[in-house]
Structures are given as structure tokens and as C-alpha cells.
Known about the structure:
The chain is an all-beta fold. It has one domain: Trefoil (Acidic Fibroblast Growth Factor, subunit A) (Trefoil). Helices cover 0% and strands 38% of the residues. The chain has strands at residues 10-12, 18-20, 29-31, 47-51, 65-69, 75-79, 90-96, 107-111, 117-121, 126-134, 137-143, 153-155. The strands form four sheets. Strands 2, 3, 6, 7, 10 and 11 form a six-stranded antiparallel sheet that branches. Strands 1-12 form a two-stranded antiparallel sheet. Strand 10 (126-134) and strand 11 (137-143) form a beta hairpin. It starts with 9 loop residues before the first strand and ends with a strand. The relative contact order is 0.23.
Amino acid sequence: MSVPAGWLRIQNVVSRQVLSLTYSSLPPITVVAPISPSPIESWATQWSFTHASALGDGKAGNRSYLIKNRLTGTYLRCWPSKLVFRDAAGSVNAWETTCKYESFEFWRFELDEESNWRVVHSSGPLLEEVDVPLLGGNEVVCTNKTPHEKKTWDFV
């Protein structure tokens, strides 16, 4: 199955909430999908995938993508935890408006056995929605590759 193109929502399979970013100074969260009369009002929940090779990076791999938010114009990033625990979660942010290949901004998309997407950071962790309230939604982290339904996503 190919990775979809265009502006779309990244929706958690379990909670049905969508990834959202309203300000580049705040972390992305998951929220209930907005029903708005104006398309611009839903830009916080719209993301696009840009293939790394389209940006001139041949060494990033043929399955590497950048994930860009429509409202802020920033790229989704994962920062590994400073904790020494092997399974410690990393934080997710999106404050860069330029592509910096050395910053590990690349993501891969893998299908699980139920044909749901896993969003995998180039350093290995998976994007996961956790049951921690944050800024009116739920926190999103990068965590280990242990299978769990909170680590699966639909692109709608």
C-alpha cells in the first residue's frame, strides 16, 4: 500500500482523535476531529508527507518522509528521552520550518497486521498517543517498537 499524498489527517486507530498543532511553540497533541465550516480552521489537523528524495537527499532512503503541518508550516520531530531507561519515551515537537537532515526529522510508515499504519521515526521509536491530558487533548510521544494499538494510525 502506498503512502497517501496531499493534506490529510493522522488519526489514532483507538481513540479516533487526530494529530493537531496550533502553535509551533507548543507540542502536537491529539484532539477530536474538528467539524468546521471553513477549511482554514482545520489546518491545525492537516499534515502532508514529503518524500526525502524530493528534497534532494539520496541517502535518506526510499521509505523516508518528512511530516509537515499545514497551519504552522513546521515539521514533526522526535527528541529522544534524556533518561537512561531503554524504553523511555521521547518528546514530539514541530518547531522547525526548514529541513535539517542532521536533525533526524525523517519518518517511515509501516503497515501492521490489521493494515493500520505505524509512524516510525528514523531513530527507531514509534509515534504513540498516550492517555495523558495535555493542552485540551492527549499527549503524543515517541516510544519503543513494542506493538500496541495506541501506536497505530489511519490517514484520512
